[in-house]
Specification:
Blueprint: E1 13-20, E2 23-30, H1 34-55, H2 63-68, E3 75-77, H3 80-95, E4 112-115, E5 120-123, H4 135-148, E6 157-161, E7 165-169, E8 176-178, E9 194-196, E10 200-205, E11 227-232, H5 235-245, H6 250-260, E12 263-267, E13 281-284
Antiparallel strand pairs: 1-2, 2-6, 3-5, 4-5, 6-7, 7-10, 8-9, 10-11, 11-12, 12-13
């Protein structure tokens, strides 16, 4: 997966890192007392570890394992966080017409029966979950509540999950500028993808891991676009949409953006000679027009 942006720490920002969920989470905090920033970093990293234990596919004690073990017609109680993530997954699945689907093997998210009020999950058939396409973004959302909460009250920070998904907060008049990553940095007219003061940005592509994203609807590699970036109010939605976008047609992208309050940029493969006539990036969902000069 190609990161959505260059996000090196600006002068004066405190920087903290932590390995979890098979990546490195990086927190940058501006304008805060050093001890307060360090305490916040410790708290959010502990929260990420809790979520990983709860949501991993690789533990028999996780909620994912509980759902995997359910026989058709049976019900289990899961943690509130798991239910919240399942509800977010259902929203993303519906908005992308099934191009985002956290189930594996059978691709049968519709076989889950959710009771959010009581955190109960039932299945109509065997279901295996993999939250790899939404879990890191969801973890950033959970951590955002801690950073902005009464204990720390931080309002100027950027938190990235291996640069694939970034969530940020900035005070009035401030922002975190994020530029296009990978080979598209040299080909687009856009010096920045977004200037984040709130919300999240996520990127998906094939430069690092090859064609590892598949369209659940067809079982074939999701290669309609070479790269995608999604901006959404939450990390979970940005994470899910950037993955699904690789398989979505233009009309589907517009519908998904409208349903989720999101914006998407996609990169199309084209001969470099065409870059001077047409920007290789196409925008959906009212993304701002390109600014700045070509590098």
């Amino acid at each position: 997966m190609t990161g959505p942006a260059d996000s090196s720490a600006p002068a004066g920002a405190a920087k903290f890192s932590h390995r979890a969920m098979d990546t490195v989470f990086m927190l940058m905090v501006r304008g805060a007392d050093a001890a307060l920033a360090a305490g916040a970093a410790a708290a959010v990293f502990a929260r990420i570890d809790e979520l990983e234990r709860l949501l991993t596919r690789f533990s028999d004690s996780s909620d994912v394992a509980v759902v995997r073990g359910l026989a058709p017609g049976r019900t289990a109680v899961v943690a509130r966080e798991t239910m919240d993530l399942l509800v977010e997954s259902a929203r993303a699945c519906a908005a992308t017409r099934g191009a985002f689907d956290p189930t594996v093997k059978r691709r049968n998210f519709g076989d889950l029966v959710l009771d959010p009020d009581h955190c109960r999950v039932a299945v109509k058939g065997r279901v295996e979950l993999d939250f790899g396409g939404i879990g890191k973004g969801f973890a950033l959302d959970e951590c955002a509540r801690i950073l902005a909460g009464e204990q720390f009250g931080l309002d100027d920070w950027l938190f990235d999950a291996g640069t694939s998904t970034i969530r940020a907060s900035a005070p009035a008049g401030g922002h975190w500028p994020l530029g296009v990553g990978g080979r598209w940095k040299r080909r687009t007219r856009r010096e920045t993808v977004a200037e984040l003061s709130s919300g999240a940005l996520s990127g998906s592509g094939f430069e690092i891991q090859g064609a590892h994203v598949f369209d659940p609807r067809t079982g074939r590699p999701a290669t309609r676009w070479a790269q995608s970036w999604a901006f959404a109010p939450t990390g979970a939605m940005a994470d899910a949409l950037s993955t699904a976008a690789l398989a979505l047609a233009p009309s589907e992208l517009r519908a998904a953006c409208a349903a989720l309050g999101a914006r998407v940029l996609v990169a199309r493969e084209q001969p470099r000679a065409l870059d001077f006539l047409r920007d290789p990036l196409a925008a959906f969902g009212d993304w701002p027009a390109p600014t700045g000069e070509r590098a």
